[in-house]
Design goal:
9 strands, 217 residues, single chain, elongated, alpha+beta
Length: 217
């Protein structure tokens, strides 16, 4: 049976509505095992309480234990629902597998090939429309978001969404026959850390951030 196509834009609302369910699935988990699997640091605060410390998009955050409420480190500011959902998906899925040495496309994720066309439409194609052949603007936007330059394509940057979830945005410069193209790639260990629909959301999210960063400069 064929899989249904993803919508033109990923469903952020549905993604965020699962926060309560994802939080309840973590109740009773061993915090030290969770810390090992996610690359977070667990700090015990009393006999049955504590907090996980880790970065989300290079920003330090705290996830309380055992109620799993996410906030910015050093403050009581609650994380936006999107980032909280991403964090909870991560804590539910992470199994501690080592990062791979390859970058893979959305097609290579579980069931990803069914959704590749839709994913490319709202990620790489949107970046191509925005930046076209202006790699200088792409370079500035990526660096403003903390992207680290990598050796793939004509210009590429790695972004750290979560401790063990790197995301690569790569560009291939166009020529007289073909326009410039952009693609979002994931580490080959990706399926050990988030479900495929979460990677669809990640791709859309970093696309929007890059476009916004370019528009603001």
């Amino acid at each position: 049976m064929s899989k249904p196509a993803l919508p033109v834009r990923p469903d952020y609302t549905s993604f965020e509505q699962r926060v309560g369910q994802l939080r309840s699935q973590l109740f009773g988990a061993d915090p030290y095992l969770l810390a090992d699997n996610t690359g977070a640091r667990f700090i015990r605060r009393g006999e049955s309480q504590g907090e996980f410390q880790l970065d989300v998009w290079n920003q330090p955050v705290v996830l309380s234990f055992p109620d799993y409420q996410a906030s910015r480190a050093g403050s009581q500011e609650i994380l936006p629902t999107f980032n909280a959902a991403l964090l909870l998906y991560y804590f539910n899925k992470a199994d501690g597998a080592p990062l791979g040495e390859k970058w893979i496309s959305f097609t290579d994720l579980p069931d990803g090939r069914f959704y590749t066309q839709a994913f490319q439409a709202y990620s790489g194609n949107e970046l191509a429309k925005k930046f076209q052949d202006d790699l200088d603007s792409f370079n500035l936007a990526a660096k403003s978001l903390g992207g680290r330059s990598q050796q793939l394509g004509d210009l590429s940057f790695e972004f750290q969404a979560l401790p063990r979830v790197p995301v690569l945005v790569a560009c291939w410069r166009g020529d007289d026959e073909f326009p410039s193209s952009f693609k979002i790639l994931f580490n080959s260990s990706a399926s050990h850390y988030l479900p495929t629909d979460a990677y669809a959301i990640l791709g859309s999210h970093i696309t929007r951030r890059l476009i916004s960063a370019s528009s603001a400069s």
